[in-house]
């Protein structure tokens, strides 16, 4: 009797395992080759879902193309170079360390379907920031695309690191990179006491419009880790379009902006009345605009640059 119970139990467990493996195979995304049962069993707990809902199993992708400057940075840290066939044209021409992206194919826009097809990629990485139909058109053309979705500062960056590391088969590299990133950020202004931290915000000018970057954006993260209290964070989110009245009401002691933008900002109508725009523009902190707008691992360098401008360089350890 006990023998029969053991046999019945073993059969039930086998059926359950078979069902689980079947599910793992059926949820592999459109265009994905069905993995073997051994591959499905090993990857079932590491499947990743992209922002558009497609589920991907980690594979040994050998022709990875990036259509996102943030993904460019992460690929260099998490994946072997010989598995990468293309980076964005932006990173190759205008990246802070553009030399790192040379010698590969180029993707200018995610809408350049013909150009992407000539690369023959087995995986394209994208941050779909505008129209979701752009990625859909690539998929209709037979391209396997992983859509990371929006860029929301460090909250999405840490998630992207974990996701991409699993996708390319190196979760341990992702864990190490995230740990190092957090350690580097925490150290930038750790010597500046909370009571002595200065107050300010990020702003830039496009035409006659004033744009900011606060909670939910990398600009807020740069300010916070540089030791600056973001005074826009309590009233605004992400990338506000400030009116003159709104900025005058906030009257920030410090305004962090791109190089060459401070004069333009203070020259707009009544903004010369801002404390930051007083004679000599004492509260204007200008940093390389490309560095400020990184949104990726460049957040560390941007925060260090802001911290140095505002508080001076970090003291050398004893």
Account of the protein in words:
There is one protein chain. This protein has 318 residues and is of the alpha/beta class. The protein has three domains: 1-44, no CATH class; 47-182, Nitrogenase molybdenum iron protein domain (Rossmann fold, 3-Layer(aba) Sandwich), CATH 3.40.50; 193-311, Rossmann fold. The protein is 41% helix and 15% strand. The strands form three sheets. Strands 8, 9, 10, 11, 12 and 13 form a six-stranded mixed β-sheet that branches. Strand 8 and strand 9 (209-212) form a beta hairpin. Helix 1 (2-26) crosses helix 2 and helix 9 crosses helix 13 (299-311). The protein starts with a helix and ends in a 7-residue tail after the last helix.
How many strand elements? 13
Count of runs of 4 or more consecutive helical residues: 13
Q: What gap, in angstroms, lies between the N and C termini?
A: 75 Å
What is the CATH class name of the largest domain? Answer: Alpha Beta
Strand content: 15-25%
Q: What low-confidence regions span 5 or more consecutive residues with pLDDT below 50? A: 1-45
CATH topology of the largest domain: Rossmann fold
Specify the overall morphology.
globular
Order of helices and strands: HHEEEHEHEHEHEHHEEHEEHEHEHH
Q: How many domains comprise the coordinates?
A: 3
> Share of helix among residues?
40-55%
CATH architecture of the largest domain: 3-Layer(aba) Sandwich
Mean pLDDT figure: 83
Give me the Rg, rounded: 24 Å
CATH homologous superfamily of the largest domain - what is it? Nitrogenase molybdenum iron protein domain
